[in-house]
């Protein structure tokens, strides 16, 4: 279920995460011992480690721990790699950091989950380009959305532009059938980047909330879900099935996989 630096997880391993909650991670979907965008996930970990800890992370070391945790399992798994430094604490976060690697796995869900109904709320991630583990604010707003009867939340920036979902990127289909990715301060997801390269009819531009009624369709995407239709944002409804969704899903499935 989990290891830290290749050793079984103990309470002592997890205390720094519980008490300090400072670190970064990536989440990837593994099927038959392979991952789409594996090199991008590893590059993210290396880059974020330099940003968060000012330390170098050995990607091959990470791979070794992932392989150890996955073993010979061929069932679809969601693999999360979390990097943290147990020697750092709240009083002295500027100390020398020795990155530790926590690998956890869980069964992966379907790549065809049901469509989402979401609400839009104003929010901006701290250090948006880093996939860090400080997620209180996002989860608080997801909770607020679910208590209001929605399934999830999509965020808007101070200028009223759509940026991203709680734990996913968002894309739209315009009237011409072109995929539109928001130009905003956000975490650039690996799956989004893969789809941008695989689907040629894609552009990146600002998407104001006021433009939603004129867009043809909307979808969420991340490594765990692939491409998931969004059936409504606030009171703007979208079709649950659009021809572009099938093209995006086909492009995603056709992407080359990288063996662990």
Automatic annotation (TrEMBL):
Please give the family membership noted in the entry.
Answer: Belongs to the class-IV pyridoxal-phosphate-dependent aminotransferase family.
- Mind telling me what this protein is named? Aminotransferase class IV family protein
Look up the record and give one Gene Ontology term from the biological process aspect: 4-aminobenzoate biosynthetic process
Which of UniProt's keywords are assigned here? Aminotransferase, Transferase
Organism domain of life: Bacteria
Give GO MF terms, alphabetically.
4-amino-4-deoxychorismate lyase activity; transaminase activity
Keyword Lyase annotated:
no
Q: Which InterPro entries match?
A: Aminotrans_IV, Aminotransferase-like, BCAT-like_C, BCAT-like_N, Class-IV_PLP-Dep_Aminotrnsfr
Q: Looking at the keywords, is Transferase present?
A: yes
